[in-house]
């Protein structure tokens, strides 16, 4: 394909002079899917993107990889350019204003394609019971839609993202599929480490509230190019997408095991939203305005309709100078992520009948446990995670404590201790090793590492929230997210319980337990006399939850704002609960559903006889 | 420009072989040996770097038995207040393409060097880090070994020669 950048990239004046069918803020997976679905059906779309345009070409992507190579601290945002006008949170307190009592931390990336650039790409579906947690277990909230309502959209999402996985394994974990369905690609082969762990641990019984649970291992569905499944689509097969740039050589390749899914897959085997954006741009009906940071959603106080989105357009990322511009459309979509959406909504002084904008902030807190295997099992090989334990994703214990999913990390202790960099420093500076002994020490200390990560559900808590405060603004004068966050006992009980599970697993393996929780860590807490540390999961969600009325929610089942009927809030912010599933697949599924609703509405206003092409500048 | 025929570069390679546990062939195969030599000389200055390399060369010339050589390497270089931190840095350069700012205690005694800060020598050097070879893997984010290779047993073992 070839993209005529002149047609796609527009200036403020063109934007001002065009009335779009839809104005979308953000180019992450949610905004990209809505833009693609609408534009492919003939609608004219504007996307406001806060960052600079440089990333859509192979050269742009390679510059990310090179930046990563040259970064001393290889954190989740290390490949991506620092933009003082559009900050991406990386560390505690660098962008978020955390007001406690506990820390949210975590990161996201404000670049073209959003945080799908640095996501890990695990794509488990949510379970049927996750949609009716309150009804089933008296905890959390129920979704206003059921698993059956979202299931067809999960299939669309799995196609769009290019998911590899094994349906039979997922069925055993309680995930339901349409008859005969298979994932677009076959499951990623389990790592050697996975095999060694499961050899000794598979079938282990544990008791939880008088129920027996059997630990079983399975691979994760992932949005990563693998081996296409010839049985997909009733035997029609699947052709993996490359990133949509100009030449085939620039397409994403099959996973090569670069052990670097986060922060960047160097061969673009991992899905990121630029693939979907490419399809949207190809229609010729999408305009993109870069360096445009939305700061105010304007509405008509009589009927609540949104009338414009105002943005600040900066010329240079190193200067806080900007001009102000306005974008108008029939429908509006905020797709900036749960925290940024909340910040923008609150800063716009929109109606807030439920009082829930910014509230019910969720994430998946993780506990980590790490040990040395008795033999060399290999570390830093393959995608970051291939297998895990899905046993604790459902069950009666959810009356008392949260569900959780377990990852076996192929990249060793890095997340917990900074290995292998820390191991090298320790071997050289403290163990005083050099030469052959150094090599042996590294094999012994790194290549036997096992890290288990326990991803726990966090329920929607009214007091966990994003707010704004005029005292905290960024360089462009936009509000920074002010965070109030705590972990209820429902989650703490599970975070603590995971330590019991890891001890059982390490005992079975004869692995030497090195797990240590530092009481000076801002994420340290004590539960029933034992101390733990959790890590943020970067699955920010729940700041504009969907529900059945304008009293109990911010959006309806089509993510339409109750108070502003032509405003759609997409992304994980609309999810009332998140179960033990990484959120992106569900975000994608909901985005397809929203796009259908928007098309119904746009077609009822002005039926599409002939798809219009946007005039070039 | 660096004179690649200068004796110091030879001494640097020989010192690096001893420090890293990798052969001269392997070190030169990384393609970054000259870059490392130049960068380190640039940070430390010709005099200080030359002093270290010449002391090492002296040990080599006087080498009779391996155990005596190893003892002298420890006592005269690795345990030297002046050269210990530098040699440990050289190991880390080879293993992770990273120069670490010298410790404050070193700077207090021997002075601050203008270009002494923690940095990756160059983005192209990162994938050549010996750490990854030592543990039998590709550098994360580069030289991907291929689909499914992660299911096979690892390439390294304990007590390998």
- Distance from N terminus to C terminus of chain B (CA atoms, Å) equals 38 Å
The sequence of SSEs of chain B as H and E is HHHHHHEHEH
In oligomeric terms, what are we looking at? heterodimer
Shape of chain B: globular
End-to-end Cα distance of chain A, whole Å, is 21 Å
**In what order do the strands lie side by side in the largest sheet of chain B?**
1-2
In DSSP terms (H or I, runs of 4 or more residues), the helix count of chain B works out at 8
Low confidence ranges of chain A: 244-249
Under CATH at level 1, the class of the domain at 1-90 and 109-142 and 263-362 and 463-482 and 559-617 in chain A stands as Alpha Beta
| Number of strand segments of chain B | 2
How are the elements arranged and paired?
The complex is a heterodimer of chains A (617) and B (161).
Chain A: H1 5-8, H2 12-16, E1 19-25, H3 29-40, E2 45-48, H4 58-69, E3 97-101, H5 133-137, H6 147-161, H7 167-172, H8 192-201, E4 205-208, E5 211-214, E6 217-219, H9 232-235, H10 274-282, E7 286-289, E8 292-299, E9 306-314, E10 322-334, H11 338-347, E11 366-372, E12 385-389, E13 404-409, H12 414-417, H13 421-430, H14 435-446, E14 449-456, E15 465-467, E16 482-485, H15 489-509, E17 512-513, E18 524-527, E19 530-533, E20 567-569, H16 584-605
Parallel strand pairs in A: 1-2, 1-10, 2-7, 3-16, 10-20
Antiparallel strand pairs in A: 4-5, 6-12, 8-9, 9-10, 11-14, 11-17, 12-13, 13-14, 15-16, 18-19
Chain B: H1 7-20, H2 24-29, H3 33-44, H4 46-61, H5 66-78, H6 84-96, E1 98-99, H7 104-110, E2 119-120, H8 130-134
Antiparallel strand pairs in B: 1-2
Helix pairs in contact in B: 1-4, 3-4, 4-5
Identify the notable features of this structure and list them briefly:
heterodimer, A: alpha/beta, 6-stranded antiparallel sheet, B: 161 residues, mainly alpha, two-stranded antiparallel sheet, globular
Describe the structure.
The complex is a heterodimer of chains A (617) and B (161). Chain A has 617 residues and is of the alpha/beta class. Chain A is built from 16 helices and 20 strands. Chain A has helices at 5-8, 12-16, 29-40, 58-69, 133-137, 147-161, 167-172, 192-201, 232-235, 274-282, 338-347, 414-417, 421-430, 435-446, 489-509, 584-605; strands at residues 19-25, 45-48, 97-101, 205-208, 211-214, 217-219, 286-289, 292-299, 306-314, 322-334, 366-372, 385-389, 404-409, 449-456, 465-467, 482-485, 512-513, 524-527, 530-533, 567-569. The two termini of chain A are 21 Å apart. Chain B has 161 residues and is mainly alpha-helical. Chain B is built from eight helices and two strands, in the order ααααααβαβα. In chain B, helix 1 (7-20) packs across helix 4 (46-61), helix 3 (33-44) packs across helix 4 and helix 4 packs antiparallel against helix 5 (66-78). Chains A and B meet through helix 4, helix 13 and helix 14 of A and helix 1, helix 6, strand 2 and helix 8 of B.
């Amino acid at each position: 394909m070839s993209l005529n950048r002149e047609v796609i990239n527009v200036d403020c004046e063109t934007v001002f002079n065009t009335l779009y069918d839809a104005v979308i803020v953000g180019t992450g997976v949610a905004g990209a899917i809505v833009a693609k679905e609408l534009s492919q059906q003939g609608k004219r779309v504007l996307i406001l993107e806060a960052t600079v345009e440089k990333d859509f070409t192979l050269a742009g992507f390679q510059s990310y990889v090179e930046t990563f190579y040259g970064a001393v601290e290889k954190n989740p945002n290390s490949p991506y350019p620092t933009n003082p006008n559009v900050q991406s949170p990386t560390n505690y307190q660098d962008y978020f204003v955390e007001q406690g009592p506990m820390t949210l931390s975590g990161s996201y990336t404000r670049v073209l394609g959003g945080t799908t650039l640095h996501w890990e790409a695990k794509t488990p579906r949510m379970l049927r019971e996750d949609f009716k947690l309150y009804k089933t277990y008296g905890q959390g909230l129920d979704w206003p839609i059921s698993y059956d309502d979202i299931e067809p959209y999960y299939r669309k999402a799995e196609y769009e993202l290019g998911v590899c996985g094994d349906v039979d394994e997922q069925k055993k974990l309680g995930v339901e599929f349409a008859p005969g369905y298979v994932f677009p690609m076959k499951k990623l082969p389990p790592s050697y480490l996975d095999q060694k762990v499961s050899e000794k641990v598979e079938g282990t019984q544990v008791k939880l509230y008088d129920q027996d649970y059997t630990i079983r291992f399975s691979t994760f569905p992932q949005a990563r190019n693998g081996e296409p499944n010839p049985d997909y689509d009733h035997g029609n097969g699947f052709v993996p997408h490359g990133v949509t740039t100009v030449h085939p050589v620039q397409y994403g390749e099959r996973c090569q095991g670069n052990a670097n899914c986060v922060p960047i897959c160097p061969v673009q085997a991992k899905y990121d939203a630029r693939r979907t954006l490419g399809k949207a741009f190809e229609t010729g009906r999408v305009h993109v305005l870069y360096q445009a940071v939305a700061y105010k959603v304007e509405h008509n106080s009589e009927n609540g309709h949104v009338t414009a989105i105002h943005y600040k357009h900066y010329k240079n990322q190193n200067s806080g100078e900007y001009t102000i511009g306005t974008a108008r459309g029939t429908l509006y979509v905020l797709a900036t992520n749960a925290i940024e959406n909340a910040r923008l909504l609150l800063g716009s002084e929109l109606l807030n009948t439920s009082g829930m904008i910014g509230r019910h902030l969720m994430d998946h807190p993780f506990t980590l446990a790490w040990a040395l295997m008795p033999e060399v099992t290999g570390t830093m090989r393959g995608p970051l995670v291939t297998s895990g334990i899905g046993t604790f994703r459902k069950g009666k214990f959810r009356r008392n404590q949260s569900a959780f999913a377990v990852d076996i990390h192929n990249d060793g202790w890095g997340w917990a201790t900074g290995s292998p960099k820390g191991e090298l420093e320790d071997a050289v500076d403290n163990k005083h090793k050099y030469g052959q002994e150094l090599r042996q020490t590294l094999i012994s200390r790194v290549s036997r590492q096992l890290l288990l990560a326990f991803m726990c559900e966090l329920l929607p808590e009214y007091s966990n929230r994003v707010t704004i405060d005029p005292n905290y603004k960024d360089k462009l004068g936009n509000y920074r997210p002010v965070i109030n966050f705590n972990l209820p006992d429902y989650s703490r009980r599970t975070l603590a319980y995971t330590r019991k599970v890891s001890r059982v697993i390490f005992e079975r393996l004869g692995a030497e337990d090195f797990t240590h929780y530092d009481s000076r860590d801002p994420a340290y807490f004590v539960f029933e006399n034992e101390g733990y540390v959790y890590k943020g999961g970067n699955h920010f969600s729940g700041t504009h939850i969907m529900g059945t009325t304008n009293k109990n929610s911010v959006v309806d089942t089509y993510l339409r704002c109750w108070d502003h009927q032509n405003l759609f809030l997409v992304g994980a912010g609309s999810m009332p609960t998140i179960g033990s599933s990484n959120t992106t697949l569900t975000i994608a599924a909901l985005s397809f559903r929203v796009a259908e609703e928007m098309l119904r509405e746009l077609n009822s206003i002005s039926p599409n006889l002939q798809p219009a092409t946007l005039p070039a500048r | 420009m660096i004179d690649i025929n200068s004796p110091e570069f030879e001494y640097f390679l020989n010192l690096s072989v001893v420090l890293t546990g990798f052969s001269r062939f392997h070190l030169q195969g990384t393609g970054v040996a000259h870059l490392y030599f130049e960068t380190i000389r640039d940070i430390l200055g010709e005099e200080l770097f030359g002093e270290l390399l010449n002391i090492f060369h002296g040990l080599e010339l006087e080498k009779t038995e391996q155990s005596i050589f190893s003892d002298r390497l420890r006592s005269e270089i690795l345990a030297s207040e002046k050269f210990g931190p530098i040699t440990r840095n050289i190991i880390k350069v080879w293993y992770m393409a990273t120069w670490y700012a010298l410790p404050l205690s070193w700077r207090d005694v021997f002075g601050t060097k203008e270009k002494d800060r923690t940095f990756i020598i160059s983005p192209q050097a990162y994938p050549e880090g010996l750490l990854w070879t030592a543990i039998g893997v590709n550098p994360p984010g580069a030289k991907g070994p291929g689909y499914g290779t992660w299911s096979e047993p690892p390439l390294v073992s304990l007590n390998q020669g």
